[in-house]
Amino acid sequence: MRTISQAEDLVDSQDPHHPANLICTLCKQFFNSNWCTGTGGGISIKHPDTGHLYVAPSGVQKEKMKPQDMFVLDGTTFEYLRVPKGLKPSACTPLFTACYKYKSAGAIVHTHSLNAVTCSLIFEKEFRIKGVEQIKAIPSSRKDPNTGKVLSLNWDDTCIIPIVENQPHEDQLRDPLLDAFEKYPHTCAVIVRRHGIFVWGPTIDKAKIFNEALDYLMELAIKMHQLGIPPDCDVGEESSYTSKH
Ligand SMILES: CSCCC(=O)C(=O)COP(=O)(O)O
Ligand SMILES: [Zn+2]
């Protein structure tokens, strides 16, 4: 492993899109959205050029982090290339590396979103919502036959996100996460009951979009549930659950 001073170049960049800078910027935004408060949640980003993995420290106020606080891991061996003095890597690191290894993720967003936690109390094994325009921001299991690119869900498709049980320690969530990967090979997220959500994508921009769209859908699902409308009911069927005819 390189010494701290030798590894400074791994986090020292004027580029706002450099992972060490971007994690700090986005965690501030996520704090303001109530997604990463009280030290909860976090973000990990793979450097698109070097393949290095950037991980935030554990137990710190995520909105106050500096680029120099970032841990850096080799993208293939997961060995630490940079360990900031006096800090521990995020407890979610084994979950982030699982997403890099098995989902070819370019970035992972973990939030303690109230909408995700509330949905984990309403839904049993899967979060399901259907027939909402915002669903078009979520990837589907289909690929474009010409380009091979993953296609988005159609607005009247059902968006399904698996829910796993929370565990006393983050590393114990790795096996449930791997089970969810196997059962839901096309999902871009896993909800952890009474805890939050992990969302990944091929890039940080995509992971951020998926997270925002899912949070919107989870908030809507809670409101539909409160109105007595099943969030995954067919389009046009909602009036049979309300007084509107
Ligand atoms: C009050 S946060 C408990 C740990 C957690 O769930 C989390 O997301 C933050 O863990 P970290 O080690 O990254 O601080
Ligand atoms: Zn968490």
UniProtKB/TrEMBL annotation:
Domain (Class II aldolase/adducin N-terminal): residue spans on this chain: 21-222
Organism, scientific name: Zygosaccharomyces bailii (strain CLIB 213 / ATCC 58445 / CBS 680 / BCRC 21525 / NBRC 1098 / NCYC 1416 / NRRL Y-2227)
Predominant place of localization: cytoplasm
Catalytic residues as annotated in Swiss-Prot or TrEMBL: E133
Metabolic or biological pathway: Amino-acid biosynthesis; L-methionine biosynthesis via salvage pathway; L-methionine from S-methyl-5-thio-alpha-D-ribose 1-phosphate: step 2/6
Top class in the EC scheme: lyase
Protein name from the UniProt record: Methylthioribulose-1-phosphate dehydratase
Binding site for Zn(2+): H110, H112, H195
Catalysed reactions, semicolon-separated: 5-(methylsulfanyl)-D-ribulose 1-phosphate = 5-methylsulfanyl-2,3-dioxopentyl phosphate + H2O
Record localization: Cytoplasm
UniProt GO cellular component terms: cytoplasm
Keyword Lyase annotated: yes
Protein keywords: Amino-acid biosynthesis, Cytoplasm, Lyase, Metal-binding, Methionine biosynthesis, Zinc
Task performed by this protein: Catalyzes the dehydration of methylthioribulose-1-phosphate (MTRu-1-P) into 2,3-diketo-5-methylthiopentyl-1-phosphate (DK-MTP-1-P).
Cofactor note: Binds 1 zinc ion per subunit.
Gene assigned in the entry: MDE1
Family, per entry: Belongs to the aldolase class II family. MtnB subfamily.
An example molecular function term from Gene Ontology annotations: methylthioribulose 1-phosphate dehydratase activity
